[in-house]
Amino acid sequence: MKQPFTDLEIKKAGSGFYEGHSVEIALLSKGIIVALVIWALIWPANANGVLGSLNWRILEDFNAFYIIVVGFFAFFLLVVAALPQTGKRVMGRNGEAPEFSNFSWFSMMFGAGLGVGLMVFATAEPLGLWGSNPLVVSGVVEGNTAEALQSGYRYTFLHYGFHAWAIYVVTGLSLAYYAYTRDMPLTIRSALTPLFGKWVNGILGHVVDVLGVVATILGVSVTIGFGVSQFIDGVYAISGMEWMMDMTGDAPAPGTVGLISGLVVIMGLSIISAVSGVGRGVKYLSNLNLVLSVILLLTFVVFGSFLFAMTTYASAFVDYVLNFASLSFGAYGPQSADAFAAALPEAAKPLAGDLKAGATNAWGSYDGFVGGLTGAAAELPAETLAAVYESGNEGRQFGWQAGWTTFYWAWWIAFSPFVGLFLARISRGRTVREFIIGCVFAPAMVCFAWMTILGGTAIDLELSGAAKGVIIGASNTSKLFVTLGEMISGGFLSGITIMSVVLIMTFLVTSADSGILVMNTIMSGGEQDTGIKHRIVWGVLLTFVIGALLIAGKTNGGADPMEALKSAMIIGALPFTVVMGLMCLALIKALFRDGKREALSSSTD
Questions:
Q1: Start-end of H helices in 440-562
Q2: Which side of the chain, N or C, has fewer Cβ within a 10 Å radius?
Q3: pLDDT(52) > 80
Q4: Coil, strand or helix: which one is 132?
């Protein structure tokens, strides 16, 4: 049988500033990023508007694609891990031991993969989905009630569970398999060699690697943007310094000056850490992150609603598993004006144009829909209005899914070149099954614990009436600190708040410096050790990208500085989603043919 193609050639500069790096990949990647920064700085309103418009167009056209392909990723990995002939393969030489201990391995994957996300959303996500999820949107249950708890956690587990980590592992497994079984460079194009062979040595390979770099920058940017916002919320909770905050809204929120100041501090520390390399900076920070995370978790176990959390964990996990298939592939498309009009009762059809916006608004409510009607539409009977609202359910479901679940899938996909390559880099010597279980199931179960212990405490405080709506009313990035304030007090509260701010900072630094290391790995053709000057350059570029898009997001009275960042990330994630689909096909071919070669070799012997 023909041997697999492994003769990967990535042309690198022999001297000068880009010595040891691919000039084409570096210049293309930097050109795209610099152009984005200049656009966002010089024409921020235009950048914010165009990115938002293009983002929504992509969601309208590719929402179902995102949902179905991520469901495929999860089932693909389940099959690969379950099959004996694929699961037992070692990603390395026969008998090679893992490079890192289980503790360090897990702490590094946890810190890089969802560390910042958990700090921001462990309280915000369950609370948000408790108030708005597909069952609430359809009117089956009322948000922020005991009846909405199960469906709220069903979608919390969806967004932070097996699907999220499956996205990372598709990229990580593909890269690790070729790097450690075929001695190929640890770079994105290696994962496509079974499909395209020598063609990845040319422009096709450059395009694939550039897509990986751009997706990484945008995915890491969104993560750091959320984290910096929470960091500033924490500093404000400790110090009360109002200059960092925007005090004009219903609740204080980080202002532009505060966000940029926090960004400079975080990115400065991340660049210092990145130049020390994965063996020191990232490893030590990751271990510290895990220790501080356990302390925070124990605080909620002891002083929070632990019994409520554990009963919620058990019931929510069973519900998540029972609904796993429908959650994986249940996709919605936009509801056209004609489809909406056709579903209306006869009395309402002439007023379809006046009714559609309110009836298909995923972020509104039935009362808000009725209250917003004017003229003849407002005079329709109550039973007709109820039927009209039901007619818009498909549009509401699409709007909710595109704005929530698909946003997460795009975020994790944009994050996957970074996390996947990083997971591959630290997983030499692991079996395929160990890699999938260790990087999909184990961290997902920990994420579930965070979401139920922290988020469950916040929900229980609201359900019991103790919090009186203050946690629900807080911004997403301040919900953790508001929950702590409702749970504990005095010097202990101050100490835990300070520790939480330190934890957020170390998670941010870990994510940023890991991202910088990964970007340089791609541009150096998979080299483990890259030059310090390139790490510094990419750290500075990453700072400018985040800062410029945060500023663009606040132009023209923009309420959310993260909007431009999120729009750019969703746009950048789409082409890499196609690359990931090709990675799966390539890995299927590689595993099948490698198994066949082994069988032929054994029969010959």
A1: 442-463, 470-473, 479-487, 490-523, 532-553
A2: C
A3: yes
A4: coil
DSSP H/E element including 245:
strand 245-246
Residue of 604, 594, 506 lying closest to 2 (CA atoms): 594
Separation of alpha carbons 587 and 193, rounded Å = 10
Q: What is the mean pLDDT of residues 95-109?
A: 78
Burial (CB count within 10 angstroms: exposed 0-12, middle 13-18, buried 19+), residue 245: buried
Residues 6+ apart with CB under 8 A from 81: 87, 432, 433, 436, 437
- The structure tokens 């899914």 sit at 401
Q: What is the 3-state secondary structure (H, E, C) of 406-427?
A: HHHHHHHHHHHHHHHHHHHHCC
Q: What is the per-residue pLDDT for 559?
A: 56
What is the rounded average pLDDT for all residues in the chain? 88
Residue 229 has pLDDT above 80, yes or no: yes
Length of the chain: 605
CB atoms within 10 A of CB 142: 13
Task: Check residue 95 and give its pLDDT.
Answer: 75
Flag whether pLDDT at 219 surpasses 90: no
Q: How many CB atoms lie within 10 A of CB 445?
A: 13
Contact present, 286 and 112 (Cβ < 8 Å)? yes
Angle at which helix 490-523 crosses helix 23-42, to 10 degrees, equals: 130
285 has pLDDT over 80: no
| DSSP calls for 152-203 | HHHHHHHHHSHHHHHHHHHHHHHHHHHHHHS---SSGGGGGHHHHGGGGGTH
pLDDT of the residue at 584: 95
342 C-beta neighbours (distance < 10 Å), count: 11
Q: What is the DSSP letter of 148?
A: G
**What stretch of H or E contains 229?**
helix 203-239
In 428-489, which residue ranges form alpha helices assigned H by DSSP? 432-436, 442-463, 470-473, 479-487
The lowest-confidence range among 356-360, 446-450, 595-599 is 595-599
